[in-house]
Amino acid sequence: MDALAGLLDGPRARGAFLLRMVMAPPWSVRVEDRAPLCLMCVDRGEAWVVPESGDPVLLRPGDLAIARGPAPYTVADDPDTPPQAVAGPGGSCRTLRGEPLAQSMDLGVRTWGNAPDGPVSMLIGAYQMPGEVGGRLLDALPGLLWLPGDSWTCPLLPVLDEAITRDEPGQSVVLDRTLDLLLIAALRAWFSRPDARAPAWYRALGDPVVGRALRLLQDDPAHPWTVASLAARCGVSRAGLARRFTELVGEPPMAYLTGWRLALAADLLRETDATVDAVAGKVGYSGAFALSAAFKRVRGISPREHRAVSRRSAPYGQSLPQPQQSSR
Question: pTM higher than 0.85 for the full model?
C-alpha cells in the first residue's frame, strides 16, 4: 500500500455527495459543512474559491481545487460578492436570514443553482466522513489545493461530467468510485509538482531503503516487526536503517509503526463491529489489553471510548444541498 492508497483506504467514498452547480452572477455561497475533503472542478465559466485564511483562487475550465475541512470557505463569481447562501452540515442550505433554499434552487438530478442556463457550471464532490488512516496525508494538505488545467491531464473529468446527472440504479456506486479515482489522480499530480509541500514520509517513499521499509510496515502492520528484522529485509544494518529512517521520515521506524497500527485500529473500531481483541490481532497487538494500553498512551482514550465517541458523532456534512432524486 503506497501513500495515496493509504489515503483512500480511510476517506474512501461511500455515498459521497456529488452535484453540478449552475450559477448566474452575482452569486456567492459560503460553505460551512465541515466536510473533510471537497473537490471542485469548473467545466464552464469561472469561479473563485475564497478560503477563510489565505489568498482566493480563480478556477477556470479544467482547473480543480480541493478544500480540506473543517474550515469554512466561500465559492463565488467574485471574491467581493457577499454570500447569498450558506451551505451547512447534512446538505442543508439557507439564506443569511435562515430561509431554506434546497427546493427553490433544485434544477434536477444532482443539479442545483440559481439559473438553469447560467454561464458558470461546476462539478462538486465531497467526502462526508473523516478517515483515520489517511490522517497523515490529509494533515499535509493545505487548506486549499489548486491544480490549473494546463498542469495535469485527467480523463475522468468528462466521465464525471457525463455521469453526475444520471439517475440509474447503482449510480451512486459509479460516482463514488469515479470520485475516488479523480482524487488519486489529482493528489498524484499535485505531489509531483516541485512546489508541493509533501510530508516527509511521503517523500521518503522514493528512497530505495526507507521507501522499502515504509511499504513493508504499511503492507503488513500485524507482523512482529523489530528494527533488526526490518533492516534485514531492507538489506542494511539496524543502526543504518534507524538513522536514515528517522532522518527522512522524522520519527523512528517503531514510532511510525505504532501510529500506523493505531490509525488502522481506529478505523476498524469505527467502521466494524469486531471486538477489541480481534482488532488488536489485525493490527499487530497481542490482545485487547496491549492495544488498549497503546491507544490510551497515544490518543488519551480507550478503544471502546473511541468507538463510542466516533459512532455518536454526527457524520460530516455535504458541500452543497442535496437535490431530491429517485435513486439516492
Answer: no
